[in-house]
Amino acid sequence: MALTCLNEETRTKLKESPVLVVGAGGIGCELLKNLVMTGFENIEIIDLDTIEVSNLNRQFLFQKQHVGQSKAKVAKESVLRFNPASKIVAHHASVIGPEYNVNYFKRFKLVLNALDNLAARGHVNRMCLAAGVPLVESGTAGYSGQVEIIIKGLTKCYECEPKPQPKVYASCTIRNTPSEHIHCTIWAKYLFNQLFGEEDADVDVSPDTVTDPEISGDPNAAIKKPTTSTRNWAKQNGYEPEKIFSKLFTEDIKYLLTMDKLWEKRRKPEPLEWGNIPETSSSSPSSTSVIKDQRQWSLKECVEVFSDNLLKLKEISEKLDPGSYLIWDKDEEVHMNFVASCANLRAHVFHIPMKTKFDIKSMAGNIIPAIATSNAVIAGMVTHYALKILEGRFQDCPSVYLRQGVTARGMQIVPEKGLQPPNPKCRVCGDTPQLTLVTNLAKMTCKEFESSVLKRKLNMPAPDVCLYNKVIISSDPEETEQNNEKTLKEMGVADGAILDVDDFLQTYSLKLILTHREMKPGEPDFFIVGDMSELKKEIEKASQEYKKVTNGKDEDMEIVDDKESRSKRKSETISVPAKKRKTEDSPESDSDDVVPL
User: Known PANTHER family for this protein (predicted)?
Assistant: First the structure.
């Protein structure tokens, strides 16, 4: 262990300082091993996930016999073999649970995050800020990674900067006019489900048999669905590879070409013929520098992989019980081969560069493949910073970034020049967090306001909302459930009203200014303006006008609406990946293999 190279004071702190590790996945496994080997003896672990087969190649604390068991509990038993003197408490639970409140976080000297989703990371960030406990954030994405410390008043917090949003793609683009490989990958996953998985008529891979308004020029045009489903058609034809190939990549494409309006400003697709596949380049199979899944298949190889795996999937599906179906899994070789080959064939048809199976797996699984060595490097940096924080050396802990390649200065682990200060306009750690919600107050109900704005956009799991001491929404659902279907206007919320909003679980509060606006067709139901500095005078005026209304005067309010401020609004939608859970109603994941950097 590392105790011999540390001074007596630090060794004492290691033994006595309680540390919380959130997440026992890729980074979490490496981190827990590092902590007990370094001499930390008072550790708690929280993780909601169970162990899956796909975890075993990089989360080394787990073995095959552990599949289906709690990550936190198995990780505890595994690391105790490294240092039996450690006192470790494992929780198979969601860190967003009500029992893990501010008082719980105050018990620790240090919190180490090893998570992979925005909701849980944001919650831990807020808990640590409220509790005044230093937090070490970490994450990896393929060959890249990062480590940063978060200390209230000294550094920026996790939510000082906007996080990337998940992308949503229109179904008509997927079916008719793909322009990026991700469109083809999504289409290929749809195809898998249409042929072998749970069917969904809304994600049919067939082109629209009567087109949308863009194609027909008729805004009232309706989309006609095929009379025979893709699966029934495939069954009728015995899942014959040549017939299915010809339908998907020849006949359907020729049909799309009859829709002239689609191709007025787009390059036309080129159908493929089963017996006339053009030559394309591929990576050499013998190249030692190319990993198997990172080889670029030729077009003919894609056809062969498509044919072979289609028949394998047919054979597998025929062995299922009546009414059962296959569930697509990125870690099933046959599933992934089928999707990758179909995605590349469709990409070629639409003049989109083909990708490797490795790249397609990243998109199809909605993940960035985890690299064990990246997790190990980042976990080492987290441990290093944990020691410095216990010694009070905060200034020696700048954010560091692991790069895929060596920089021009010969560095692969690149530090910032110093600690990054808090963002004064941050809605979480700023002095006066304040936002403006622009919406139609006569249409938005309290229920929609709570679910769409407070819980989804602002990540507040248990919000309380008051209007001049009048409770509109309570964290106790039964207290205000009678308000659910009432509009904000019916609740007395007028243009310019200022709501006091706080979260019972997160000790997090803000001022929310309501601006009424009749939304135009095509606009979202609401949007949020985050920078209120330019609207201060208008807000104060709107607040005074609102007080007049509450005194019984029914007059129009001035709309607080600034074009420049609206252009700066930041979307804060949070995406949560789906995994096996201890409880089905908890959306959080507490492992770390993929983190938006």
Answer: SUMO-ACTIVATING ENZYME SUBUNIT 2, UBIQUITIN-ACTIVATING ENZYME E1
> Annotated binding site for Zn(2+): which residue ranges?
157, 160, 426, 429
> Any bridge partners for residue 527, and if so which?
438
CB atoms under 10 Å from CB of 359, counted, come to 18
Q: What is the pLDDT of residues 315-350, one digit of tens each?
A: 999 999 888 899 888 889 999 999 999 999 999 999
- In order of start, what are the domains of the chain with their CATH numbers? 2-165+370-415 (3.40.50.720), 179-351 (1.10.10.520), 434-529+531-567 (3.10.290.20)
Taking Cα atoms as reference points, which of 531, 514, 496 lies closest to residue 444? 514
Output the known binding site for ATP: 23-28, 47, 55-58, 71, 116-121
Burial class (CB in 10 A: 0-12, 13-18, 19+), 537: exposed
Instruction: Find out whether 206 and 223 touch, Cβ atoms under 8 Å.
Output: no
> Of residues 29, 128, 172, 342, which has the active-site annotation?
172
Q: Which residue has the tokens 């322009």?
A: 179
Residues making up the chain, counted from first to last: 597
Q: What is the pLDDT of residue 432?
A: 56
**H/E segment holding residue 42:** strand 42-46
- Mutual orientation of helices 181-195 and 333-349 as an angle, nearest 10°? 130
End-to-end CA distance of the chain: 32
- Mean predicted confidence (pLDDT) in 148-163: 90
Rounded to whole angstroms, the Cα distance separating 27 from 377 reads 9
**446 among known catalytic residues:** no
- Categorize the per-residue pLDDT at 509 as very low, low, confident or very high, splitting at 50, 70 and 90: confident
